[in-house]
# Entry
Amino acid sequence: MSGDVLRRLTVTRLTIRLDAELDKALERIAKRTGRTKSEIARDALRRQVAVARFRELRSKVLPFAEAQGLLTDEDVFRAVS
# Structure
């Protein structure tokens, strides 16, 4: 089975509470984009999970980078260019 099919077979439900203002904003975006509120929320959660993973990995790698003298983004760009 492909990854997409497996993902569809193992769906989990998450219930969250939104204040009225956030719900209205989400509803407006859903109508404007032709997407469901669930699709928008899933995409937002995927982005948040990616950011959290990036920050976790960065914190693990940072001591090694600093030991190599890579202290800023510019240092990294110079090293890989």
Summary: The mean pLDDT is 90. Residues 53 and 59 are 10 Å apart (CA to CA). The first helix runs from residue 3 to 9.
